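Incident review: delayed structure delivery

Summary: a single-chain prediction request sat in the queue longer than the usual turnaround. Root cause was a stuck worker, restarted by the on-call engineer. No data loss occurred. The affected request and its eventual output are reproduced below so the record is complete for anyone auditing the incident later.

Affected input:
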Amino acid sequence: MHKVKTMTHPETGAILHRARRVETVSYMGTSKAVEIEGWFPDNDGDGILIGDDSAPLDAALSELKAAYQAETQALAKRVRFSTGLTQRDASLLLTGSPNSFSKYERGVAQPSWPTFVLLKLLAGQPQLIEAIKKV
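Output delivered after worker restart:
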């Protein structure tokens, strides 16, 4: 596919060869190892991805984002039902915004990492909501 046998890294000056490498894609606490093809030095230094070389990374990131969205939708509903709160009450109490739980449950918005962690804690210990109400 590529006719050039080597290229020089524009920043490091390293000689790059066409090769495969496993890279890790991370999103909101989850990770996935992905094999990619690109231009890499013989050591573990930085390489260059050209054209469709980054497509497997993009696909993995999209997959992780979709899984996170599905998890947060289900998590928001589970926490809300287990604590007996309405969407509005859960939103105001846990995020300060009046419509956040509606958005989380519909998949329109994603909670911040701290809110996600709080939801995970409440999913395992719904009685913590009483302590939060007192704050």
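Verification: The beta strands are 6-8, 15-27, 30-40.
Action items: add queue-age alerting; document worker restart procedure.
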